[in-house]
Each structure stands twice: as C-alpha cells, then as structure tokens.
Design brief:
The structure is a homodimer.
Chain A: H1 5-21, H2 27-33, H3 40-52, E1 56-57, E2 66-67, H4 69-79, H5 87-98, H6 104-119, E3 122-129, E4 135-144, E5 147-154, E6 159-165, H7 172-186, H8 191-196, H9 199-203, H10 208-229, E7 233-236, H11 250-261, H12 263-272, E8 278-281, E9 293-302, E10 306-315, H13 320-337
Antiparallel strand pairs in A: 1-2, 3-7, 3-10, 4-5, 5-6, 8-9, 9-10
Helix pairs in contact in A: 1-3, 2-3, 5-6, 6-13, 7-10
The first copy, chain A, binds a DNA duplex through residues 24, 26-29, 38-42, 44-45, 47-48, 58-64.
DNA sequence: GTTAGCACTCTCAATAAATGAGTGCTAACA
DNA sequence: TGTTAGCACTCATTTATTGAGAGTGCTAAC
C-alpha cells in the first residue's frame, strides 16, 4: 500500500481541519468541506488505509480521525509549503520589534512578546550564550572615596558592571594600574578562558597596595564574568495555553505549567538544540513532559557569532508553516539588527 | 449579641481548621478535634450566632461553616499572635538568602524564590523605585574607534551602562569634555529631575564636535535614565496555585494566571500600597480580579531610602501569621544587607 | 474502483436515584 | 437559663441509566 496522491490529499485535508478545529474529523465533514471529488464512503476506505499506515488515529470507534505524530512529521517534511508572510504583516512585526530598541536583552524579550501575541502560543527567547564572547576592555572607575565601579566590555557590546564599596580608601593611581593590568591580562580572551585562568598569578605584583586592591576586586570580577556567561530565558504568553482546547483540562494545564516553570532544565534543553530552524514533534522531544508538545526554535546571531534562540512551545496540533515563518522572520531581523556594524544602522 | 470568649474560641478553631483543610467545618468535627468542652449542639447554636454576626458563611444548608472575610480581618487584627520563627528556620532562610549575594536585583529575585518555596504560594518581589535616587557620576568611556560606553552611577550604587556604536569616529578629548559636562549638569539631581530637564540647553556649547557627539549620546542617556526608573517585578511559584484546592478549577486557575500575567497593572498596584507590613483580604483589594485573593506585602529599604516590596498572593484562606513573619524576616534582612555601608559587610 | 445503505459502537449530556455530611429545631435535662 | 440528645430535613456529590448524535465498517449494488 502506498501513499498515492488521493491519500495525501485526504491526509492534508485532515491535518488542516484538525489543526484549526482540534476536533477529530469525520468522512462526511471532509467530503463536504473540501473538494475531494469522492464520496464519504471512499474517504472512509482511504482513511482506514491511512490509519493502518500509521498516519491517523482514532480516539474511539465512532469518532473521526486525527493526525498522528507521524502525519505531522510527514507534513512538515514533505507537504508544508513555505508560508510567505504578507508584506503588511512583515512591516507591522518589524515596526513593533524596533519600536523599543535599546539593550539587546530588552529587544529579545520584546521579540518573545511579539511572537506569543501573533501565534497565541507560549513563546520563549534565549539571550546568546557568551562563552565565545571576547573581553575587550576592563576598567576600574573611581566614583567616591570608597566606591569604585568595575566595568567589563566584551567584543559583542555586552557591558557588565558592578559598584564595589571598599572597606578602606583606595589610591587612584593603584586603581588605574590595576585596571591596565587587568585589561592587559584578559583582553582578547574569551569569557570562558578568563574564568579558568589562575587569578592569583595573573595580577600578582610587588606592590602591596595593588595586591590588596586586587584581592578585593578579583572575586567580584570573576563573579561578573560568571554572570555574563549566564543566558537569560524570557517567556511570554504563558496564559495562552488556557485558550487551547488541548489544555482545557486541569491536569494537562498543570503539567504544562510545571514544564515551563523548570526554567533551568528548559534552558539547557534549548541550548542543546541544533541551530537553524528546528521543529520537534511530540516524542521527538527528549524531555518526558514535553512529549505531547511540539517545539519550534530558530537561532539568531549577534555579531555573526553569538547564538541565541527564539521559539514557541504548544500542542502538536499547530500551524507549523505560519509559525515557522514568523519565527524565521523575527530571528532574521534580530540577526540583521545586531550585526558587526552595530544596532543603530538602518541597513 | 456580643463576641464572648467562647464564640471567639470557636471562631478561631473554625479559622484554624478551614485554613488547613479548605473544607467547610461542621460542629461535630469541631467538638472532636478541638477541646472546646461543649457538645456539637451548643457549637451549632454559637455558629448560628456567628453567622448572623457576619463572621461565618454557609456554602449551602447542609455544609459546614467557613470563615468570612470579616472573620479573617478580625483574626488578623485581634486574634493573630505574632509568630516567632524558630531560630533554625531563621538561620536556614538567611543562609539561603545570602548564598548568592551579588547584584541587588539577583538577591531580590532570590528572595522571591525563597518566599514561594516556604509558603507554597505565588510570591513576588519588586525592585526599589528609584525616582529619588540621585545621580552621582556619569562617564563616557572610549572602547574602540567607534564604540563608547555610557555609564551612569547613582547614589544607591545602581550602575547602568550602554555600549554605543557611533557612525563616525569620535575625538577622545571631546568625549572627556562631554563626560565632565554631563556630570557637572546632572550630578546631585534625582533621576526624575534629570528626565524633566531641558536637554538641548543643558549641554549646548559652542563646539561643533561636542554638539554632534552629544546629539548622539543624549537620547541614549535619557533612555538609560528611563530604564533606571523602571522597577522590575520578579515572581516565583506560579505553579503553586495548582496545589491549592481553591484553584482546582480551570476557570479560577485561569483567572489567577491572567491576573498575574498583567504584570504592569500588578506592579502599579504594588507601588501604590502603603509601606510596612500590609495585609489586604478579598474585597479590600481594589483590583476586581483580586477580590477573592489576599495579598501580604512588606517593604524593604536600600540605603535607607529606596523602597522595594516583597510579598505573596494567594487565596483568602492562608496562614496569615506564619507568612507575615517570613515576609518580615526577609525584608528585614534585605534592608540590613543593603545599608549605606554597602552589601559586602557582615554586620 | 466507487458508492449508498444500514447496523453497530462509543461518547456525551441529561436525568434520576442513592448517599452522606451537616444543620435547625424541639424537647428534655442540670 | 444554658446545654444537650435526637431526629427530620436539606442539599451537594456520586453513581447509574437512558437517549441522542456522530461516525465508522461492512455489504451489496452500481
């Protein structure tokens, strides 16, 4: 038995219908709503075949058919047409995205919000992992007698700083020297490299004052580096799942909420995902609690290197085509906005 | 009819029982579980009185009684004993809180996490509002030919910065001048004051290069100030509501989720609340969706001035006493940790 | 190969009956 | 006069029953 054209057509119609109604679809409905040119009885026969082949399932004898995970996979791989967003929608998304450009993190967060608004699903956006980010500039700035600010700037434009209140007064000259010393030592190193370096050796000098100062500063420096390495995960549209019939059941809603509440695990899972546009359906997801969900993610780049992720999570029944397009459009825009030339240019 | 001692005793028992079981409590249960020294029949008579006085309600004729909002208010005002946390618990909370002190924001976020873990409710923590925070130091730092970093330090130790990529190269001397100029202009002003100042006038000079540079820098400066004004709201324990019988109903769970999803509104409501430990029960809350919830908040101080808030939201049936104690203990610790002397000291 | 017809299956909603927790009232008691 | 035992009554909740409706699978005719 093979998947002839009519079977494909019927399968596609079933997927289309089920995706928008969330109800098992019967042969009569199918023949009325879609121009298949055959009678319900014929459709029934084909459906029986499709079921035998594993593309359809039956909640119970007298219910209509619904697509199996295998069907969605087939759809995504073979049948899904690239959905081209209408220019008007593109414009409105881009407008919205750039309305509030400031920090990268804010933009990313904003992208998640836009995505959940459009898709009516739960969206997430991960800031880039920065282990390959290179330190460019380290500075210790005098603020007042006992306060200094430690500032770290990386190649990608990420700035981290921390106000340090010292127990004793410091000497401005020593501060300048330490600052230079640190820049000299760490400039050009990636954050991960810097973290593994032996601190005591690196900044040790003959000067007592310097040693004292660096003793106070270095722990904070290392902590800041660690902080810089952390990726942030923004989520939006959490309450959207309540609009989805699949989750009109307390237990399932609960499961879902618990899943996305385990942010650390979720972030880890995201980091491990391949780059580019990636769709995983149901049991294709490793996480047990995610096995009746689908996940679509895409990557964006900052400075051509650092990689962050953007995506949605929802029931396996979703508009793969449209949603993928929106995600791709957003990641493309993020990538363009944060090119090497900086985020201020229009081109 | 007055609230004699026996009535109070019975009321207290009902509150206690209902708070822990979430089930309407009947006269028989009451007389068996609590040492009231009277028979169920007598209790029934007293309960009828209490109901008439508005302290109890009846879901339906043949159900037990449950405390009304008025009863909780009475309890909170008059009957609630100050719950002293056992030293062991204090220690473990403090340990946990200080385990990861770095940035203020992280600590605040962490406090919310601890709070939700202990109370099994949804907790939130608001970072201080900074409108009274005074600008102390503004600096423009050269990073590379076209990149500068704008740094703003405030009295309270908050540092904000932004990497700016310029379209043209800049002159380091001009940069230094502008930096001095800006510090001179804005130092000592509160952030809100700075935002209302007329920018064009403030930095205008005769130098063309300077004007050009400041034209690029000032918008970012203002945006950074705005960002600094924004308070952040961290929430934790969102899924805890699923453990609460009151929300074992999709509609109510949904309502709750939507309520806390409207973060902006929620933040506004929090800002408007009075300082100190504040308990609002049911309809005492202004927000319509919050009228079958109770809210407990307390304030913490940073530098003796800036005020942030910490609290929980849950069903009106909650352990007011214990929870208040935990919140107070946490806010006290936050206040102490961020005194004028800085957060690094142990004392 | 396709289709009409029909018996059969199973869910879902509505209705009815049984259960049980708890009250309110009355009358007796200390 | 306050307290208590007893008992009828109420009402939510659970369980069982029934009927309607949607949809299939199979058979026989086209």
């Amino acid at each position: 038995m093979d998947l002839n054209e009519r079977k494909l057509k019927i399968l596609q119609a079933i997927i289309q219908d089920f995706v928008s109604t969330a109800e098992p679809v019967g042969s009569r409905t199918l023949s009325k709503k879609y121009e298949l040119g055959v009678s319900p009885a014929t459709i029934r026969n084909e459906m029986a075949d499709l079921e035998e082949m594993g593309y359809l399932t039956h909640p119970h004898t007298s219910a209509g058919r619904m697509p199996s995970q295998k069907a969605y996979r087939l759809y995504v791989n073979e049948m899904m047409k690239k959905h081209e967003l209408p220019q008007a929608e593109k414009d409105s998304i881009a407008d919205e995205l750039y309305k509030n450009v400031s920090e990268l993190d804010r933009t990313i967060e904003h992208a998640a919000k836009i995505l959940s608004n459009i898709t009516n699903l739960t969206s997430f956006a991960m800031t880039p992992k920065k282990d390959q980010d290179v330190l460019k500039f380290i500075n210790l700035l005098p603020v007042d007698e006992r306060t200094i600010v430690l500032m770290i700037v990386s190649e990608s434009g990420k700035v981290s700083n921390l106000a340090l209140k010292l127990k004793t007064e410091y000497d401005e000259e020593t501060l300048g020297l330490l600052s230079k010393n640190m820049t000299y030592t760490f400039k050009g190193k990636t954050i991960s490299e810097a973290l593994t370096m032996d601190i005591i050796d690196t900044v040790h000098t003959d000067m007592k004052a310097m040693n004292e100062l660096s003793g106070t500063v270095m722990p904070s420096f290392m902590k800041s580096l660690e902080d810089m390495l952390n990726v942030n995960l923004y989520m939006d549209g959490l309450t959207n799942i309540f609009k989805i019939p699949e989750y009109n059941d307390l237990d399932r809603a609960k499961m879902f909420m618990e899943l996305i509440d385990r942010k650390e695990d979720f972030t880890k899972a995201l980091i491990q995902r391949d780059d580019g546009l990636l769709i995983t359906i149901g049991t294709e997801n490793d996480d047990e609690q995610m096995q009746d969900c689908s996940l679509i993610t895409a990557t964006y780049h900052v400075d051509g290197k650092l990689v962050g992720k953007l995506g949605v999570i929802g029931p396996t029944r979703m508009r793969y085509s449209e949603i993928s397009s929106v995600i791709e459009f957003l990641t493309d825009n993020l990538t363009n906005a944060y090119r090497l030339t900086g985020g201020d240019d229009d081109e």
